[in-house]
Amino acid sequence: MARKKVLKPRRRSAQDELDFVRRRLQTYADRGVFRGYSEKQYRAGRYYFRFLWLAREPFTLTYEPTSGTLTFTNFLPHVHARSTLCKELKIFIKGRSATHLPAHRRIDTKRARPDCSSRRGTLLVHVIAKPGHHEYGVTKVINLVHEVYLYLHTYFPEYLWQYYDVPQE
Amino acid sequence: MKKAVMGAGATAALGASKVGFAEQTDSATKKILIPKEFEDAAAAPLTKIDFPMIGAQVFARACKEEGVSALFCCPGNYLIVHAMAEAGVPTYSGRHEGSLCHAADAFCRATGEIAATSGTEGPGFTDMIGGIAAANAARSPILVLASNSTILGDDTERGIQDCYQQPTTEGMRKYGKRLITPERTWEYAGYAFRQLKTGVPKPVHLDFPAEVAGAQFADASELEYYYDKTKYRTEAKAHPDPRAIEAAVRLLRGADRPIIVSSNGVFYGKAWVPLRQLAEKAQIPVVESGAMKGQFPGDHKLSADAAPNALASADVVLLVGQYCMPTIGEFAFGPDAKYIRIDPAAEDIGRNLPIDVGIVSDEHAALTALVSAMPNQQHDSWVSEIALARQEFEAENEEFYQTGLGYTDAVHPAVVSKELAEFLYNGDLPKEQTTVVQGGYGVARYTRRYLRAYRPGQIINGAYQYGAIGPDVGYALGVAVAVQQGVGAQADYKGHPIIAVTGDGGIGYSGMELETIAKYQLPVITIVYNNNAWGTWTGQRNNAISLPIHLFQENIRYDKMGEALGAHGEYVTRPQDFTPALERAYQVALTESRPSIINVQAKKEFWLRDQYPPGFLGKIEPGLMSYNH
């Protein structure tokens, strides 16, 4: 019988975690997935990264090494907390760790978990990575945003017409 | 024996005994008649045309020798269109040059062959602009022809219909030329066909001043470069750099979840055989995009067309003949996917989507090279993932259909789509038989989910990329001619009825071509999804002042309009009546070779998700729902 693989927490320094996150993001930039990639200021325990990706306006991704929280702060503007869209998105985002999903599409809760929160009409998209898995976390938060974008394309195209300049036709 | 005037193909569509429609029973009105002249044209022998010839005849000879399969026009550019018809190019004349240009575009998309379109001087030519632009966006090899006054009269506004044509098509063609030197007529035909038959196809536009079309040539010595096509162009294709093939193989071999995107270039390159060989040898799923569908059969276990939720899993994407490149985020592949691109145009590789390997090559040659170079592979779990995604997609479609059936006061688009698909693929017809023009706007969000392609050229993807609403009946004309003649990819399906789907927005633009379709007795069933509104109305639903901009009169009888133009009409107001109406229309197509229009009465509120779920649907590309790229 195959043994279940146990993921041991990796011991990595905060600097190591930061370097992994930076390197991973830089790889997306080097491959041309992100454009205009830059690291902005460090403020209040958070690192700020900005890049053009799925929209005309740059995305901001923040990273808090102490908590392992990676957050897209401006990916989903105009999603009001009580709206149907917000409810549906929350269900979708939190469901991205469901075990029925293929491993390469799932966020493994042993290493990180997806989350979202409302702040002043914007839905923030988070992945909270466990210690030693911040590189995994940054890969997953990028993929999570991509998955949410596809979800919007499928079921809420009018949101993308309105806020992402996606053609209505 | 060859037939003249309207061309053999056009006249073949006309049954000798069918010169009128009996449905008009009102004794106070006269029956719609197809003039006897159509029969006469069908019976008339082609006469051999040889020197001395005029410029138009020289050009028509070039078109005939290059195998131009059809000409779609309105009267005008007389010397050219008459010369082409008399040379034996099947010629179809309709109501609006724009629609006829769309017909030429659709003919190319259905067959993979070249079609010509023609209009007169200024107005006829400018009527074609929308059609040329749509064909350009779809990368269709249409040959746009137009008369254009005289060289002598340039800049004078002498007479009427003056127009600088060539600057007008700048940016929406591959090549264009105003012919001004009569002796170079044959030579410039060579310029046109070199462009049309090589590389990435796009429209070519030639305009003919009277001095050129009417120039007299006593013999061949008066023409420049008058020799066989084998001397002015080659059938040779660019083959791939072996190093690029090696790099692609390395990437594909290392992939866990590779996928092939098959697009226009596979169709025009007739590369569906090596495509399938590569997919099966290396167990790589295939998903389609582009202006036409069917290069890879939709029921193959490796087809990912109906598996949109699996696409984001792909780790290596092989794009083949994807001439219209998406930007990042427009295709569903994830941020970690790597890309290999096969394209005959080196200058386009790397545009929009960053590549990991670029292969400059004819698609057939590159796929053949990959078939040789790739080892046998297995990707069982990936293929299973595709199968599961397909099941989920079909289950969702079934859920939409059941929901749609519950709305009984009008016909929901899921009902139209599902029942049309059942009729075409799960009834008495062989599933690969019927060619479909998949048009419309809102309704297409549903039909695209249900319709399938099982062989090349089976689905024409509406106003792909350019996004024009309204060409659909023009497209139907072009596809019907292609199928009626059995040209190119339609050879095995010659003569069968075709289906066109459009909306009430679309029918308003090109609906008069129902008369053209009826005139040529083409068995086309046009389904009009009539929801009393432009699909754009939802954005203004709470804006009392602007909302009427997006609305029509309610319950318009497009079926009556069709009847008045010589078609059979059906008006469907309840879900349970759609399939019986479709069956009746199909019988009319089969037994009378006559078009039908099925006016499906819907209501605009079906687009409101909060009132009528699932409402207006979005899409994922590539795959069944592809429309932009």
Topology:
The complex is a heterodimer of chains A (169) and B (629).
Chain A: H1 14-30, E1 35-43, E2 46-52, E3 59-64, E4 69-76, H2 84-94, E5 112-119, E6 122-129, H3 134-155, H4 157-164
Antiparallel strand pairs in A: 1-2, 2-3, 3-4, 4-6, 5-6
Chain B: H1 8-12, H2 36-43, E1 53-54, H3 55-65, E2 71-73, H4 78-86, E3 91-93, H5 97-111, E4 115-119, H6 121-127, H7 129-138, E5 142-147, H8 165-169, E6 175-178, H9 185-196, E7 204-208, H10 210-213, E8 216-217, H11 229-232, H12 242-253, E9 258-262, H13 264-268, H14 272-282, E10 286-288, E11 292-293, E12 316-320, E13 338-343, E14 357-360, H15 363-373, H16 380-405, H17 413-425, E15 436-438, H18 444-450, E16 459-460, H19 472-485, E17 498-503, H20 504-510, H21 513-519, E18 524-530, H22 558-564, E19 568-572, H23 578-592, E20 596-601
Parallel strand pairs in B: 2-3, 2-4, 4-5, 5-7, 6-7, 9-10, 9-12, 12-13, 13-14, 15-16, 15-17, 17-18, 18-20, 19-20
Antiparallel strand pairs in B: 1-8, 11-16
Helix pairs in contact in B: 3-4, 3-9, 5-7, 5-19, 12-15, 14-15, 16-17, 17-18, 17-23, 19-21
